[in-house]
């Protein structure tokens, strides 16, 4: 077992190949230990080199609505009038602080996603 930092794309690809070979290693074995360490190194490299940005707040709301089989009318109590729900979901109106709080509480969407800046449709 030779463990080295992942410093390049080539190192990363080699680490992924090795990970695939030892993926089913038993915990507590030499290969199991290597698997655990390799996973940590790969995760660190990916976070530094392939960061994933937070999703658009409105797309996150729509996604959560889809997961919960909700319709626009189901957000009336959370956001306000039916027309306001439509405006928000069509990005014609920004989320207010009160809406963000309610969406966080009722749909369990993280506030750091809901407060992210987004463009209003013109």
UniProtKB/TrEMBL annotation:
PROSITE patterns: HTH_CROC1 (PS50943). It holds the Pfam family HTH_3. One of its GO terms (biological process) is regulation of DNA-templated transcription. One of its GO terms (molecular function) is core promoter sequence-specific DNA binding. Residues 61-114 form the HTH cro/C1-type domain. PANTHER family: ANTITOXIN HIGA. This is Putative transcription regulator containing HTH domain protein. It comes from Cecembia lonarensis (strain CCUG 58316 / KCTC 22772 / LW9). The lineage of its organism: Bacteria, Pseudomonadati, Bacteroidota, Cytophagia, Cytophagales.
């Amino acid at each position: 077992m030779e463990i080295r930092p992942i410093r390049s794309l080539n190192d990363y690809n080699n680490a992924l190949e090795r990970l695939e070979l030892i993926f089913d290693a038993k915990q507590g074995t030499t290969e199991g230990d290597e698997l655990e360490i390799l996973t940590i190194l790969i995760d660190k490299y990916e976070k530094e080199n392939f960061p994933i940005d937070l999703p658009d707040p409105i797309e996150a709301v729509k996604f959560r609505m889809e997961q919960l089989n909700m319709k626009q009318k189901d957000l009336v109590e959370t956001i306000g009038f039916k027309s306001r729900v439509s405006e928000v979901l069509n990005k014609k109106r920004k989320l207010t602080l009160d809406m963000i709080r309610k969406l966080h509480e009722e749909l369990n969407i993280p506030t750091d996603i809901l407060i992210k800046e987004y463009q209003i449709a013109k």
